């Protein structure tokens, strides 16, 4: 149990560190890879919280997603190497204030909320994956099929706007 | 040893030195094909060719290097990590390169001995208590500082960009002494570029309000910005402005880009000069218009002034960018300073408005950038693929302007220029040898060319035995040359089997003496038909580097024949006609067609060799009068196409010689076949031309 | 309990960083990064709730899957829009997207 | 072995990998240090000293496929749990997944027809 | 202990694979060559290019090695000899391989050289091509085993190997596996002739040694994955279980290298087109095929 807490805290610290690094570096590639590291650490937290399928999935999905993000950053941002140490932000104070405020509010809810008893054990990973599959095919079937349609819409939308029509 | 690592001997170092001496990764200069053409089998001698000097221990120098190539070799050498060694084959030392650690004469046995010596030298000298640092002038760099967004800002010391306030970043540029400062006549162009007119600063205007004109510097009464020197008078008088690379790139026509960045130096020069002169001058006007144009729409909070300023300068940057991607870049050149100086007044103005950390308009930054076919304005980089690039002939210096991994513009030149035709002038006895030295990739064809020109001058006819001996020689050379090309080409497209087998057969052809060659001929035929039938190779090459009809007409040889033009100098030769020669022609004009033409030519050449008695060996040449006078011309179909020679002989000496070589035409079509392709395909297209940098005449 | 609180705290901090990033950045892609971080924080909370409050109810995990899908879709559509905008204006700066705001 | 111990082994392997790399680096350092020379640290560019800036806006030509991939990739998040229970649920599950995948494949077909799959 | 055995086996496998690769590329069988080459690289200078993104440059080879080791950790040599028998092993292997791409993108961007950068972004395109062909065949393998654990997947092949029951998946996966490990003809990111070494171009000395070691380990894991998922892993008569996995892995690796010797490198564009226009429809068909055959068998 203590090991679990320590692991969650450590990986969480890594996630937060890299999350902050995203906005602290001026190199776009570093920025995207920092986000990847943050997301991978979150995946690690999932593993530490015994959500194995989700953790591994997060590790995998985010690697490709963030690498593709890096590509788009390098395409559309000036000075992607961050050589000029350019500052690309605005309304800093406002953002900082909202960030801190939102964070405090969330923390307050986390610590003040009565969460009730904590479950000591979770089902093992194989059972989780199986349960997830059954859930998907039974009660959440509609959610599952809706997800397909949503993804389809996203694919159509992004292709429709992004691809230049040729003569 | 020259390239030893610093350190006294300890047992781990001994072990490492032993291993290094066993594992000889090799970078070959000028290229491996030339080595094989000299009959050297590097792999059999224990050398393992690799694609980059970064991974190599041994720099193998084959033959004598011309000056520019020697500089490139020196750079490659210094980029090899220590311990590194130089093995010179066939030439004891090369000016510009450090002394070779081992020198071996040409020949496989000598190479084997040389490698053995090299192993001993490396094992004994990989580490040394004191090492010299290579201080060749060629590899000297000086550091300058440049703004990442505004390439025209180049300073000698660190600081911030006067335009946008970003930190300047250091970068190297080649030392002033190097004649090879990123080629294409860049340096010369800059030296010749007219200086910025001294009289330019006679009127001052506001960058935002062109109607404000004052005789002395000051602030604009309308917006308070610092005034900048006005130079529009000069700008209008520049007729060449339309022809700047920028103007061409702004259009979406890839064909147009191809035209601009030809290897032809004078074209570049002209454009460059025009551009350099026009650039500073037109700015105030453009800016002013831009600033006004956008002012209405764009009002981010409290940033109006600053963003306008940025916008103007963004545009500046793009002018400079354009120049850089277009012809030889301003960025590295001394001339750049003067471009930057042109804005001196304006920069100060910007400083006042302090853009530090401010908002910079991307719209303005990208507005004038070249757009790709899909409409995205991207930045282009210029990447050199040569003179020492593994996939291309050594000495061929191709520069691709890369738009992502696509080639947006290409320029080709050679680093093998070895002086002028005057050096060939010689007595008639030695003239063929001199001319044979023109192109180490086709010495037989050039010797034959010289002989035939001399005989034409003398009016001598040759008999059948000599003619057949010449056919055999020339055709064997063609077979060897095509195989050598195929080996390099196979390595470029990553087909190990083709590369290895073709290299093996090339060496066998080169080493062939007068013994019967039936087995070799059979093997070559089998190999050629296997390559011709390989479906994946066909997929890989089809449609790459297709030559337009007018482009194909400008060249000769296999490249023309692959595009359906049945041109071949051998058709004019009565001995070839007697042997029943027919040229091999394909229609498609792409890299695949060129491969097929060469494979078919290998077969046809073997047929000719067999028809002309099969053996290799030089025939006796007819003797010429020692006091020959006259003029002669000859044409020979070299493996790359028609080479034409005109000579004037006086009293047994060649006093004038003019050569038209096929590669001189081929190098001009490099942009035509490569622009618009993906970089790997562009390399395939260039390599499929099989041009020999050695025979390119200015 | 401690682990739950630690996880929730981390989720909160990630959310805060993401919000800060989304608000302070001028660039579409960077803003999307902020949003992804916020979603990441949300996912941490969801998994923590699932694990420590109702590990027997798999809907918690299903919900995380949906959030992940949302992240991917957001990325795809966002980059699609970014590409279109970059083609049209040469910029994905939000400062310069005034006309998008109407 | 509990699940968390599994992850501990994985973490140990990562640490071991890093340890191996550090050892190799130290070993190489003990053999000798790199000697600075002019031009040596410039990236190889065909035997030229090419100081042109490389980190610029890079035109990635496959962004059309990349966009499709971003969305299509999610399919596997749903497919793996389904794969595990497929034999248990039988043919209806295959049909459910068939509908799901066909819907997604429509997206690919649309992208194909719009030219998203070609080099941009 | 098991983990140590697996690591030892992995290193041994990497060595043999290095010999095999040398055999395929130079045409000579030299069992000592990798050792000599490794020592030589250790003894050579390791030049750091001027002003690289040092962090990315240094991390990339380590990440590549770590990713390969992670993938190896869940692949079983025998029922007992598996470092970590994760319940989601098949997915975990995928996740580990995804970081191969991340490492190569870092290696491409880090040194600030044109060839490396082109090569690095190229590999991301390669991932977009091969990723689905890795993911979907593994899912069908999981369908048959009713589990994502690699050991369960091997056990499910007792009657008949997956290569026989789902040949389309087998072929697609093997080709995609070659693309993951950038074995010719899929060696777009290193492309010796085209990009002078590509992502590896600016790595020298010990860093190059680490990079190459990582690549070899990666090849081992991919060959092992083909053996485990499709060729019945440890199943086989006479020999001990671990030996069967080892033999199959090396045979697959040798076949991959041998095939790569005779074909030209694929064009980046063709790779994307073929995988998305042909590969993915085939992989989807494979899912349907496996679904129907399993249902028929279970009926």
Describe the structure.
The complex is a heteropentamer of chains A (167), B (698), C (102), D (120) and E (299). Chain B has 698 residues and is an alpha/beta fold. Chain B is built from 26 helices and 19 strands. Chain D is mostly helical. Chain D is built from 4 helices and no strands. In chain D, helix 2 (63-72) runs antiparallel to helix 4 (91-114). The longest helix of chain D is centred in the first third of the chain and has 29 residues, at 3-31. The relative contact order of chain D is 0.08. Chain E has 299 residues and is an all-alpha fold. Chains in contact: A-B, A-C, A-D, A-E, B-C, B-D, B-E, C-D, D-E.
Give the SSE layout:
The complex is a heteropentamer of chains A (167), B (698), C (102), D (120) and E (299).
Chain A (H helix, E strand, L loop, with lengths): L1 H21 L5 H21 L3 H25 L15 H21 L12 H13 L3 H22 L5
Helix pairs in contact in A: 1-2, 2-3
Chain D lengths: L2 H29 L31 H10 L2 H15 L1 H24 L6
Chain E lengths: L1 H25 L6 H11 L10 H20 L15 H21 L4 H32 L4 H6 L6 H4 L1 H14 L11 H4 L9 H26 L10 H21 L6 H31 L1
Helix pairs in contact in E: 1-10, 1-11, 2-10, 3-4, 3-10, 4-5, 5-8, 5-12, 8-10, 10-11
Number of strand segments of chain B: 19
Main β-sheet description of chain B: 5 strands, parallel
The main β sheet of chain A shows up as:
none
What's the count of strands of chain A? Answer: 0
Gyration radius of chain B, rounded: 29 Å
Mean pLDDT figure of chain A: 85
**Number of DSSP helical runs of chain B:** 26
How far apart the termini of chain B lie comes to 39 Å
On the 0-100 scale, what is the average pLDDT of chain B? 71
Number of helices of chain A: 6
Identify the strand order in the major beta sheet of chain B: 3-2-4-5-6
Tell the overall outline of chain A: globular
Strand content of chain B: 5-15%
Question: Short description, anyone?
Answer:
By secondary structure, chain C is mostly helical.
Structural features:
heteropentamer, D: 120 residues, mainly alpha, 2 domains, 0% strand, E: 299 residues, 12 helices, globular
